[in-house]
Amino acid sequence: MDSKYKLTLGGALLGAFTTAAVPATAQTMDVSVTIPRLTVAEYHKPYVALWIEQAGKPARTINVWYDTGKKNNAGIKWLRDMRQWWRTVGRTTPTPPNGVTGATRAPGAAKISFTAGKGAMPALTAGSYTLVVEAAREGGGREVVKVPFTVSAAGTAKGSGKGSFELGAVSLTVRR
Prior knowledge:
By secondary structure, the protein is mainly beta.
């Protein structure tokens, strides 16, 4: 590169460039999903899918936890065991579902943050939504928890739900 010309940005101008690149009020959804500790003979970590539904619009997968460590990505063949997710959105999702996947989680609370416009997380406009969380476990059961929430004009919301066997407490907070 020819160094004949040099660009110098003063403090105010540099500040304008850096703040324009990152929105100050990015919408974030914080989700907590509890995987209960089960006392069973042979425990397998569950596959879990999280997606958002809004009446009249296609469902959006925001996260899928499955066994990503299997040879030749063999874990994807069990994604269809999350039957409701598979029927709603999974079968039309490219496999493996890039950008939204993660490894299965051990029992306990898993906290995940999603930022609107990054990954699969859409910007949530004012209206009613449902966060759906489904878990399926080898040698175990499957369970679906639906968490309805309403996003205000300010872009905020709260919601919670609770499973009874494969899932524990599920909560979300949408904030700007």
